[in-house]
């Protein structure tokens, strides 16, 4: 397992496990540990005005969902797999050369190594995908399709009274979200804004801080406190949001997994379920067949679910970040309707698309393949 991070950091944004993801975690015997790490469900989602007054609210639509800080979920999985997996941290794959017998991986720092297979699970802007599919298509946007949204996530330590709600404040073109974390005064924050295009260095956190401070300078509610806490947050992340669509998920002995292969709509919570379910199916297929058949079986099984999760809900990105004052009022009106049972059930069914995956029950011995996962 190769990761550019020098260490596996705790905390981070909350990722959601529901139907398929929870099933895999249960089969791994990790459900109790994941439940312990999960955030409290809370009272639901509330829209608030400049003064923090609730203008619309809706209770949770999925009471069985587990929202787990990303770093904590990674830690649990790392501890469970450490006896059988070699972890290379602070490095990345710089080049891949394939032949009939395997793949030679060249790293940025470590010496080259030989593997039977390589799994690129390195996110929507996947470097592994660029290596095997070609950077030309990547630059042309044939793979990553931006949604015109950029967001930052981080954990703040501020005495903010959210009263058990996940609170959202909209200003035209800007959205701030906050929910209670696990520790005293801990708040999970997301700041999101719309823009057609934005060039940025993904590693320049100071530049991201300045950009967000400028964009949200005139937004009230709790935003001034959150911006102050942002600069000290150890788990700060900034990214552009979008979908990944590919004609194929494998290239010879290299296969793509999770967001690198099929990043879903940023307006849904299906990404983690799809990634966990995909890893499970890929492992099961590899245990039963050669890599060519396994890759084909994995994609054939998972692609229909991934394509469902990539469909934009009604309203598109405007439902997350309205661009006008009228749009903010419409968003509030729609939220008020979601309190009613039939509407809430319809939204819950829509959001579950891509996560309700009837997973096979693999019970086959492993084949001892040497694989690198980035």
UniProtKB/TrEMBL annotation:
The lineage of its organism: Bacteria, Bacillati, Actinomycetota, Actinomycetes, Streptosporangiales. Signal peptide: none annotated. InterPro entries: FAD-bd, FAD/NAD-bd_sf, FAD_aromatic-hydroxylase. This is FAD-dependent oxidoreductase. One of its GO terms (molecular function) is FAD binding. Coiled coil: none annotated. Residues 1-289 form the FAD-binding domain.
């Amino acid at each position: 397992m190769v990761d550019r991070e020098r260490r596996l950091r705790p905390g981070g944004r909350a990722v959601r496990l529901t139907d398929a993801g929870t099933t895999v975690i249960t089969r791994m015997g990790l459900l109790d540990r994941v439940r312990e790490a999960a955030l409290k469900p809370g009272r639901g989602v509330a829209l608030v005005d400049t003064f923090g007054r609730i203008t619309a609210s809706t209770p949770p639509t999925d009471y069985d969902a587990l929202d787990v800080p990303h770093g904590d979920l990674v830690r649990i999985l790392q501890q469970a797999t450490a006896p059988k997996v070699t972890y290379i941290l602070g490095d990345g794959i710089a080049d891949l050369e394939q032949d009939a017998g395997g793949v030679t991986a060249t790293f940025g720092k470590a010496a080259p190594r030989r593997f039977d297979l390589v799994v690129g699970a390195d996110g929507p802007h996947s470097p592994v995908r660029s290596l095997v599919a070609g950077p030309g298509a990547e630059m042309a946007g044939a793979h990553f399709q931006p949604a015109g949204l950029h967001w930052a996530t981080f954990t703040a330590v501020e005495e903010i009274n959210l009263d058990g709600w996940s609170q959202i404040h909209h200003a035209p073109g800007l959205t701030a979200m906050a929910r209670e974390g696990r520790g005293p005064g801990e708040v999970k924050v997301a700041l999101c804004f719309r823009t057609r295009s934005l060039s940025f260095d993904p590693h320049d956190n100071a530049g991201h801080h300045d950009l967000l401070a400028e964009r949200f300078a005139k937004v009230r509610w709790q935003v001034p406190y959150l911006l102050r806490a942002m600069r000290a947050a150890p788990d700060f992340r900034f990214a552009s949001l979008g979908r990944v669509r590919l004609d194929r998920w494998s290239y010879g002995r290299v296969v793509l997994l999770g967001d690198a292969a099929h990043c879903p709509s940023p307006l849904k919570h299906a990404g983690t379920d799809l990634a966990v379910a995909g890893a499970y199916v890929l492992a099961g297929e590899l245990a039963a067949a050669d890599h060519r058949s396994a890759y084909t079986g994995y994609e054939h099984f998972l692609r229909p679910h991934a394509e469902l999760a990539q469909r934009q809900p009604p309203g598109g990105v405007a439902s997350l970040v309205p661009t006008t004052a009228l749009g903010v009022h419409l968003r509030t009106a729609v939220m008020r309707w979601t309190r009613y049972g039939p509407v809430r059930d319809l939204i819950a069914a829509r959001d579950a698309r891509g996560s309700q995956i009837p997973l096979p029950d693999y019970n086959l011995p492993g084949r001892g393949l040497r694989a690198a996962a980035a």
